[in-house]
Design brief:
The longest helix is centred in the last third of the chain and has 15 residues, at 276-290. Helix content is 31%, strand content 19%. By secondary structure, the protein is of the alpha/beta class. (4S)-2,6-dioxohexahydropyrimidine-4-carboxylic acid binds at residues 22, 46, 69, 71-73, 126, 129-131, 193-194, 215.
Amino acid sequence: TVDLRTSLASVQLANPVLTASGCAAAGKELGQFFDVADLGGIVTKSIMMRPRSGRATPRMAETPSGMLNSIGLQGPGIDSFIANDLKWLKDNGARTVVSIAGHNTDEFVNLAKRLYNQPIDLLEVNISCPNVESRGQVFACDPLAASRVISAVRRAANPNVPIFAKLTPDVTDIAAIARSVADAGADGISLINTLLGMVIDLDTLRPALGGITGGLSGPAIRPVAVRCVWQVHQAVPHLPLLGMGGIKTGRDALEFILAGACAVSVGTAVFHDPTAPMRIIGELRDELALRGFASLTDAVGFAHKSA
Ligand code: DOR
């Protein structure tokens, strides 16, 4: 049988399948469907300093190829998150990746400080949410803005906790952004956040989402995500990548691994089938075995090798 163990920087994982940020608040909801300790890890919904109610409703729209959301970083705020959600994840043995989001560098730094002594495995620094007040707050659109946030978080966070920068596909040169956050001290990169999009409601003849634009996820963005993983792996081959975007089968996951991801996150597929991440672990094992891979790590970045 195939050895599925992998790692994200210094964090060892039993298998490479995690949930994606936002597909569950902090994982509790998934506990009724499977044992959260059996996954590679849980990535929590991006948390901010204060409780937030998010954007105006409606804030989800389905299209035949993917889902749009304009949630706007709704959440309980860091204090409640630490007291309730983080505790639950630890008590249940989950590998925990905490996603943080801020309006500015100071907020990111304060979040990293709050989490300094908490039982977390990895920090995902979400500098790419499309549903923020201004485009200038999508720090991952600009190499300099991205590197400022990442270097400040790297200095403030517990040195034993790796930090991953989460990037957006809405840029002309994702490799340039990746190099910039790598130089700023990111220990890895999460690819990709949702793609900016919108839907018009043909009954109201108006934008379907209260926030007008939203982030597109699901099958529609998978080839975009695979391309980003490929380009970033080429630009910074030593950096571990966590790949995501429209994964709903083991075959989908394998594409990301071959393009250069060490592990993958499952997001939109969880809304349709909460057990999808567990199913994908088994499917990925079968797909690897079928192709003669003895271990997952042998397959990471394999598509880059000359034939
Ligand atoms: O699509 C997204 N929606 N990406 C994020 O990073 C945050 C989320 C939201 O809360 O709007």
